[in-house]
Write a structure and sequence with these properties.
A four-stranded parallel beta sheet has the order 3-2-1-4, sandwiched between helices. It starts with a helix and ends in a 7-residue tail after the last strand. It is 35% helix and 14% strand. The protein has 127 residues and is of the alpha/beta class. The protein has a single domain (2-120), classed as Response regulator (Rossmann fold, 3-Layer(aba) Sandwich), CATH 3.40.50.
């Protein structure tokens, strides 16, 4: 699934996907070590761990946008208490995900696909 989402994002947006990791600890390590602009977290059910990860990322890297991608409908998923800038359900589809990413991210400079912005895609617990 990570590969398909990465391929779709790169095919339909001007952003570069830098990496995809399998677990929360790897996502936190990679995010703090890199210069990413956005983290895409897969939100499994139950999502309490994901909210904790998003809140931790937000506290360590307040400039980073955090987007959740989930198969469950969440009540009040966005805001300071959760750490998410947006949450998209899989039922919304990949086009809604791309629309949300474009709304949160600046367009890269011309002549450089990644520009000064890189889309760091971290999908958690999703094979």
């Amino acid at each position: 699934m990570r590969g398909a989402i990465r391929d779709f994002i790169e095919a339909t947006t001007p952003y570069q996907v830098c990496d995809a990791v399998e677990d929360a600890l790897s996502a936190i390590r990679k995010a703090t070590a890199s210069r990413c602009d956005l983290i895409l977290l897969h939100l499994p059910a139950p999502i309490s761990d994901s909210v904790e990860v998003a809140s931790l990322l937000r506290s360590k890297l307040p400039q980073i946008k955090v987007v959740g991608f989930t198969s469950v409908d969440l009540e009040n998923p966005v805001g300071p208490a959760t750490g998410f800038d947006a949450v998209i359900t899989k039922q919304d589809g990949l086009s809604k995900l791309v629309q949300t990413l474009k709304g949160l991210m600046p367009e890269p400079s011309q002549g450089n696909r990644a520009g000064t912005s890189q889309l760091e895609s971290y999908l958690r617990n999703d094979s």
